[in-house]
Amino acid sequence: MSFFYVEPEIYRRYRDEVIGMSQSIQVNYPENLPPEKRRPGLSDEQIAEKLGLDKRTVTEIRCVAEREYYGIDEWQKAIEFKEQACRGYAREGLGFTTRRLFKERKHAKNNEG
Amino acid sequence: MAQTPSSQPEKPLDLLRVAEEVKSAALGYGADVVGIARAEAWEKYVPEGYRPYDLLPEARSVVVVGARGPTAGAWRSPNPRVMEVVGLDFANDRAIAALAGFIEREYRHYAIQAPGLSVAGHQPPFSYMLAAVLAGLGTRSFAANIVLNPRYGLLYYSACITTLDLPGDPQLEQDVCPHPMCVQTYKHLGRTPCIAACPADEGGCLDGTIDGNGRIDSVYYDRERCTSRAMNFGPVAFQKVLADLVSEEDPTARESKLHSDFSARAISGVSFYKESVAQCFECMRVCPIGRQERKLK
Amino acid sequence: MNPAKRSLDAAAWKDKLKTTAIGGGALVFGVADADSFEAAPEGYRPKEILPSARSVVVIGGAKPRAGDWRSPNYQHMELSSTNDRMTALCMRLAHTIEREAGYYAVVVPPGVDEGQRPFLSLSLAAELAGCGSASLAGPVLHPEHGFMYFAALVTTLPLSPDQPLTDPACPAPECIAMYEEQGRTPCIAVCPIGDGGCLGGSIEDGRWTGRQYDRGRCMARVYNYWGPAFQKVMAEVLQEPDKERRRMMIHSSLFTRTLWSMTYANISQGQCFECIRVCPVDEKTRHLKQEPEP
Question: The pTM is what?
Fold first, then answer.
């Protein structure tokens, strides 16, 4: 007996549904939103019940899907993103993130005018 | 501390006074903030299995502490790698470990340090962030749903679950996020500073809208992209490297990948990741909440 | 003047170190003679760590709290076991000895040397220093506090040694009674070597004897997610011909958890407590109040 891991075919079949119901992409998560608006994501037990799978399989699919969601290139891009954002902020302060947007807005207004 | 030693005849505890003593002890152990939530408060927010009494039978209350992570100086460093490596000194964990011992010793009630590490993928048995919200220490934000404290902004939280029947603190009535300055920025640009720093529609993690009352109307957070940034090196990156290696057919390419700088940093992060729990601070860097606390001479 | 040149009041130093240790959170403190480690293999004795060593100071503590034992979620204790606090406290004692008494002191490394051998057996040191006695379950148990984490330092400071316990903590009277009735102690009953577990043995004249211990199986449980699990999964991955399956294994929950445990090894040291959970030695320290105050 090996250790428990999910068969690729099962993984492919349920991956999107499992990750969609989990907390991977969080839409309207905060507790202080009105209850009718909140979508806090489901636990593995709750997903298993919805899909008619056992909890262990759902956990396994979710774990693999979390890791496979983005390719390794996203980790490389992350280094570049932080380098740019951190040094930009040290240089220009808060304006680093908003100056470009203000410029674009001004440009758009001028064009309207 | 004026407590009844265990060997003395027991008197009913004055729980209001005990709550104050517990909070005072937590601050003495190094916490920056402390609050208490009633155990039943979890009912409304999480399914069975993730509530305080699922971890400690007869749990009545949860003491939550928060501590600042990076120093003010670290926030000023232009090199993002500084905070990647020295993000956290575990002051919150140390405080809560000492506090759990204090509660068992002084009040003879059960107390455990709530387990907050992941046990299945990203999933921990207990959410410290929810505990912080329920203990009135902060509210969620546009920035990765991080719970922001009104005074300090970003904090690292730990929690102690106990059978001690302490009175809970109220949840904050006033949302900490969005800050008035961010509401103004949003009115002009359609984005808050954090969303502008890491916009989902431009390869980032965040999005959201503010309603006419200046409150969060909707919020979007791509946790998996955030993982690639906030867990850039360490266990997750190491898995990505390994998965890539075991899929690579060309032995020369395999060797190059294995010895790459990225791979070396990923492996090194497995050892040192505990000190660098968070490796991306860009949404928090531009957050005005807690900024005053980070201003020094 | 070098503090070591002053005349040494060994008894006062022992008291000072003990007070510092207990004040810093240790539950027990003891001293073993550095020359009393004949039971350790050559190369793994105090003088091989520090030539001219005279004493080995042992402290124990950081045991699971009463609340920890009550949690029905086994994962809770997997994430909260640590000897870090004891090792850090031991380092404080070592600094005190060097800086204030002027004698050499080395903290015994908590990890292992080649061949998975400890640099110096902390269990043996704890026994020789009178901090506890070996148990049928394995860990050294203190008669009052039961299971705990130990740390030790080796020093040239000549301290008067304590003596090993004359009455061992294990087997407890309850275990002797259970053995007489059922032929098993609680720890053997929960993890029997003949039934997929790790422990076996018998009790004769109130002492345990003929202990059987499956170290390999115990490692699979205590280090469920750690270095050995990493090796096991990688061995499977490298044997697996299907590329896609290999990815499933690398991204599996077991392997993910294993990497987290390797990262957080300092607070995820023991990952199986079942034999100690049923141990009655420190049972009385595990009962506190749980009812609401009247």
Answer: 0.90
